[in-house]
Write a structure and sequence with these properties.
about 40% helix; binds 2-acetamido-2-deoxy-beta-D-glucopyranose; METTL24; single chain; 2 domains; Rossmann fold; SAM-dependent_MTases_sf; globular
């Protein structure tokens, strides 16, 4: 005699409940997080989750533009009164880095917020590019000390070497390369050019690099052209950068909101996501009464295959 239908239903229900319970348990147990394969899924899940949040933020930005514009053409970056925002409020670091976030380099001007330096330090080889040296290299020196596999390439046409933190340390000097050149949106580096401008892609080609783990840029406003050219060149495919520490100089009389907004969106379009920002208070303090034109941002690249995204790096 075949079993009664109600018995079959009950048995199936009990079996499913056990399966679900076990599933639940195995996902929340500590061993789940230790397991390399499953942990990789959790990193991916984290990134997806953050990306969802970030897309919501972009909607919020449009709403804020409608509020103060109503279009981007009318938004003033630094309104003088009765408008409770500045440029920076449209561009908040809403993406959380999935690894340890820490400040590297000196406190005060020169130190930078980074994501997952432990992971980068575990690599046999890694590449740091630094534009804008200005006789201060505490960030690069601390990175090189933390990551013995790293080498740094520095560029600044206004000085002729790294800052003392690097040149006074014989351990670091051999891993730190310097040229008195400028980063630009196009190449102008003939003998008669001053400063000599190189695009980031041309420098990478010159040095034989296909990827930069940590890219620091502090070039007094040159970041607009330089990064536009870089992201345009990589509109297809992945941006060959793991993370970017960028000081942005959005001058009150120069960068219109509309321009800034489009430029920022071009960084987002290639997968750069800001995970940290701080206004440059040192500047605010020195230039009293100026608009808050300078801000530090740190971005991770959420595309490609690198130490911050790679599941095998646990
Ligand atoms: C660079 O900085 C060091 C100390 O931080 C200082 O002694 C030196 O005079 C500076 N050099 C220049 C050219 O400003």
């Amino acid at each position: 005699m075949p079993p009664r239908p109600s018995v079959v239903v009950l048995a199936t229900f009990i079996a499913l409940s056990f399966l679900l319970l076990f599933h639940q348990f195995s996902f929340s147990s500590p061993s789940y997080y230790r397991d390399v394969f499953t942990r990789s899924r959790s990193l991916k899940a984290w990134l997806n989750d953050e990306e969802e949040r970030y897309m919501a933020l972009i909607q919020d930005r449009q709403q804020l533009i409608r509020k103060w514009g109503p279009t981007e053409v009318e938004v003033q970056p630094y309104p003088s009164h009765n408008k409770l925002y500045t440029l920076w409020d449209f561009f908040i670091p809403a993406f959380q880095c999935p690894h340890r976030v820490e400040r590297i380099g000196t406190l005060g001007d020169g130190g930078k917020w980074t994501c997952g330096v432990d992971r980068i330090a575990k690599q046999d080889k890694c590449v740091i590019y630094s534009f804008g040296v200005n006789n201060e290299s505490s960030f690069e020196a601390d990175l090189l000390r933390r990551a013995p596999g790293c080498e740094a390439w520095g560029y600044d046409y206004s000085v002729d070497r790294w800052g003392p933190e690097v040149y006074n340390d014989p351990e670091l000097e051999p891993r730190a390369h310097f040229e008195p050149w400028a980063l630009g949106g196009s190449n102008h580096h003939e003998d008669h050019d001053y400063p000599r401008y190189w695009t980031l892609d041309s420098l990478m080609e010159l040095n034989g690099h296909t990827f930069i783990d940590i890219l620091k840029i502090d070039i007094e406003g040159g970041e607009f052209d330089a990064l536009t050219s870089f992201v345009t060149a990589h509109a297809e495919g992945d941006l060959p950068v793991g993370q970017l520490q960028l000081e942005i100089h959005a001058r009150a009389g120069r960068e219109r909101f509309e321009y800034f907004n489009k430029w920022w969106a071009s960084l987002e379009a290639v997968g750069l996501r800001p995970f940290w920002t701080e206004p440059n208070m040192v500047y605010i303090n020195i230039v009293r009464g100026a608009a808050p034109e300078l801000a530090e941002y740190s971005f991770i690249n959420i595309r490609g295959n690198h130490a911050l995204l790679n599941e095998a790096f646990n």
